[in-house]
V(D)J recombination-activating protein 2
Amino acid sequence: MSLHLVSVINSASLIHPGFSLMNFDGDVFLFGQKGWPKRACPTGVFNVRYKQGELKLHPVSFCNDSCYLPPLRCPAVTQLAPVNPESCETKQYLIHGGKTPNNELSDRLYIMSLESRGCNKKVTLQCVEKELVGEIPEARYGHTINMVYSHGKRACVLFGGRSYMPPGQRTTENWNSMTDCSPHVYLIDLDFGCCTSYTLQEFTDGQSFHVSLSRKDSVYFLGGHTLASNSRPPRLFRLRVELLLGSPALSCEILPYGLSLTSAIVTRLGPDYEFVIVGGYTSESRKRFECNTVVLDDSGIHIMTRETPEWTGEIRQSKTWFGGSMGEGSVLIGVPAEGRQALSESNYFYIVKLRQEEELGQTCSQESTDQEQEDSAPLEDSEEFYFNRDPDELQDDDVDDDTYNEEDEEDESQTGYWVKCCLRCHVDINTWVPNYSTELNKPAMIFCSKGEEGHWVHALCMDLSEDLLVCLSQENTKYFCMDHMEVVQGLQTPPQKLLPVKHPPMKNQHRKVPVKLKMSPAKKSFIRRLFE
């Protein structure tokens, strides 16, 4: 077990207490940012990439058929595994409850899954809201959610948490006061969304921020905090759920040797049911520096003391800490930088590696050997459009020649969207903000047709209005940037001065002409004298 100090390169202020981490086949995603999402990342979900002591957050997009997912703090998150391990179902995560940046509590259930994985590790996620019916759990946070499998079926177990006071008891004085949720166990059928509430005599008080572990048809609850008594008793419960044909059967028993902890981080080691509990609190002002290994098997639960890393002075002296499990034996821990005004960031970040480097190397070597022994299969249609590159090559993190790496992203300041398009270019990758409604993560660009190959320029540097930019993108017209507009005009042949063409008026054949009488001068004088 080792402790490593890491530096967050970008968006460090978005990582705050209450965030959650999800691991999809080695890719770690951060959910529950601080504040509401910005236009740079409207989903509020970031891909966390760690390399050589540096942590980078990359915005992640959702597919078109996804629903809106608000940033939720302290939700209940669990991995949804298929009933049949040999099936081709993708890994999914369940997200329930949580607190929004407006301190509103959510009672909705979301299912997060990996939609697609493109070149250069660009990942698209899918978020679907599951509609719940029946005895729906009230909005809450600080609770847990687990999956149980029994008799070829699966169900979701929800327990604990905190919520606001009931509407009848909520007044102006206690408007933001929290209370423990009722100690009911909710069973959710994910196929139909049916929710059923169960009352067990072993659960007498509500509890929140506890630890829950599940294996097959059993769920274990450790520790937790009770607001009514402001205590953290060393509790350990085992909840057994049998999914029978008629109605499910629930039973609970109180086990000895419980743990007194709250807000601890749980990570799983490998495919076996071996977990490690890191961090947390034993009281309101005392952090828990001990680590425990928990093993679940057919005989029950086994809790053992584990060696702890060498905690730094900043960790021991800080009043609070927070974090999440990155999977594969790694834990991300954040510590507030208290009293350090000179620091630009407000938190220190550490990564605790629970597995030794030798074990990780042997595991990776074994996986590569097993991969070489597999028969080569033809590429699917979706794998043939990788710009003449091998899809497996793009996903290999250990190859540094032509594969995607973090240095390639830094080179975007010289190529791609962040190129210096002209002498007056003021688009910077570190300070750029969207200016057009069509922009999301990258600046809008337009192609200049000067020369044989041409070049791309930023629409903002060319002072193009949004209407003109949309018009040029829709019409098949050539555009020349400000630097080449005068050059192109000088190369054009001056227009010849042509004399205007005279068009004689056409006579109207049916025009009525007044009748003229032919009279001699004598007659004219006679008529003039007659009228006089």
Summary: Helices lie at 313-317, 357-373, 391-394, 406-410, 466-474, 482-491, 521-531. The longest strand covers residues 249-259. Confidence is low (pLDDT under 50) at residues 358-415.
